[in-house]
Amino acid sequence: MSTAAVSSPSGSAPATAGLLVSAQGVAKSFNGVPALRNGCLSLKPGSVHALCGGNGAGKSTFLNILMGILRRDAGTVQVRGQEADFANPAEALAARISIITQELSPVPGMTVAENIFLGREPRRAGVIVDYAKLFKDTRELLERLLFHIDPRSPMHRLSLAQTQLVEIAKAFSHRSEIIIMDEPTSAIGEQEAEILFSAIRRVTAQGAGVIYVSHRLSEIFSIADSYTVFRDGGFVEAGQIADIDRRHLVRQIVGRELQIVGRTATRSAAPALLSVSQLSRAGEFDAVSLDVAPGEVLGIYGLMGAGRSEFLNCLYGLTEPDSGEVRLSGALLPSGQPGTSIRKGISLVTEDRKATGLVLSSSVAMNMTLSALPSLSRAGVVDGSKERALVQTLVQRMRVKLASPQMPVAALSGGNQQKVVLARCMATEPIVLLCDEPTRGIDEGAKREVYALIEAFTAKGGAVILVSSEAPEVLEVSDRIAIFKKGRISTIVDARSATQEELLHLAS
Fold it and tell me: Which of 483, 488, 489 is closest to 507 using CA atoms?
């Protein structure tokens, strides 16, 4: 294999003329703690450049500096050959640089159109917003991108995936020459990702450059021309995607060879641990029936809007079904009662850890024990020693990297935040684990740890239902895969014999 991608002894990326972006030795610290030590990156016109690295590698810090969200402490950044040090995002936008951030920030009370053109609305006489033109321009933009979203729809009515598409449309609406994409597909399915890739290819064909960040390595090899790797806040190597393979990239990202943990648990012949019969909820899913045995991982795969997350939420009790029933170990489970689900042994890893999985302003310890507080309390008073012992056990079990359990959970990396969500679920000692996109937005190393936790859980007789938008993930982790299509299960396949192409075909 060619290694045109090796870092230089000085640890800096090679400089090349005619670049859209050239960054050397960019550094940033917070309260004396380095978040970025040596950020280096080169972006050519008409190309997609993948910025790779694990959670906490310094990627987002580097991109925020480039976008003017943060100011660098050291290093140089050139945009089209000119020194650049943007004081705020407005200056970066004026320089035709836009960003799609991993953290979505819609204005819920406004429409899709108002969110996309916020602060740039077309006006009559320079004063009154021309809503007819606003909705027309938005509709044309969404149609051009092939995003099927109503411009007049309020943002709070959209799913997480649709909100992600609106953020993507907002970035394209600026007609920027440099587009930064930080995990743009973390909340959307593979079919929507392909639509995005088509849009990326169209803008790069016109000379734009894209800096692309994703923990989905299959995407990087599909869309990127070149790459740069950061690790522990510093530049590691850069080169052409065509010169490397997945194994090489993973080794550079994590700094070691990753042990691949495959499925060893097999479906038990014992009676179903969880049994769902003809469960329906109008407008979301219809007549869903399935069984999950002890020791089994049942994957759920489908396109955006297929009803997968809605089904899991109803199963857990966050919403009530219109008809059907759920049985746990043969006993009927009351509907619409998440507290009862927890007591009976069901836990849910939610789709969006920041919005619904964590209390970001609270400590790691509080987030871990939140669901288990009834079992840690007597007469309404929490037993502090029991709580501390549980937190210590969970931190060790989940291998959460943290300075102190009392630190705010918001200060952790994405991978460690996801481990805290899993720890909170495990704190209640469940027998059934519902996982909705459990590896969304976390790096390859953290993904492997999540897979190992699922493997250990099922090895002890637990059952898992896992929703994932990534076909390779659902194939690797599952024993069987239920294909959701338009709110119904179209078929259930054996994960050992299924292929990625087959899953996409069955879901389409």
Answer: 483
pLDDT, tens digit, 9 for 90 and up, residues 367-416: 999 888 888 888 788 888 899 999 999 998 888 888 899 999 988 877 78
Distance CA 14, CA 53 (A): 19
Residue 295's region, left for phi above 0, alpha for psi from -120 to 50, else beta, is left
Q: What is the pTM of this model?
A: 0.72
Residues sharing a CB contact under 8 Å with residue 70, sequence separation 6 or more, in sequence order: 28, 61, 64
pLDDT, average across residues 68-96: 94
Could you tell me the residue ranges of all domains in the chain?
Answer: 28-105+161-254, 107-157, 274-507
CA nearest 11: which of 2, 24, 1?
A: 24
**How many whole angstroms separate alpha carbon 321 and alpha carbon 335?**
7
Q: Which tokens go with 380?
A: 């309404």
d(CA 387, CA 257): 36
Task: Look up the CATH number of domain 274-507.
Answer: 3.40.50.300
CA angle 305, 306, 307 (to 5 degrees): 90
- Alpha-helical (H) ranges within 265-383 are 308-316, 338-344, 364-369, 373-376
Helix (H, G, I), strand (E, B) or coil at 199: helix
* Residue 86, SS3 per DSSP: coil
DSSP state of 109: T
- Locate 353 and state its tokens: 């850890």
Please give the structure tokens belonging to residue 291: 């069984």
All residues at 6 or more sequence positions from 377 whose CB lies less than 8 Å from its CB, including other chains: 383
CATH, domain range 28-105+161-254: 3.40.50.300
Average pLDDT, rounded, for the chain: 88
Average pLDDT over residues 479-490: 94
CA distances from 203 to 68, 79, 173, 209 (A): 23, 18, 12, 8
Q: Say whether 274-507 and 28-105+161-254 share the same fold.
A: yes
In tens, the pLDDT along 226-284 reads 999 999 899 999 999 999 998 899 899 888 766 655 566 555 567 899 999 999 999 99
How far is the C-alpha of 65 from the C-alpha of 26, rounded, in Å? Answer: 9
pLDDT above 70 for 2 = no
β-pair partners for 240: 226
Give the other-Cβ count within 10 Å of 323's Cβ: 12
Question: Quick check: 4 pLDDT over 50?
Answer: no
> For 279, phi and psi rounded to 5 degrees?
-75, 130
Instruction: Identify the sign of the CA torsion 145, 149, 150, 156.
Output: negative
Beta strand 463-467 with 432-436 is parallel
3-state SS of 420-442 is HHHHHHHCCCCCEEEEECCCCCC
The CB density around residue 348, as the number of other CB atoms within 10 Å, is 26
Average pLDDT over residues 163-189: 87
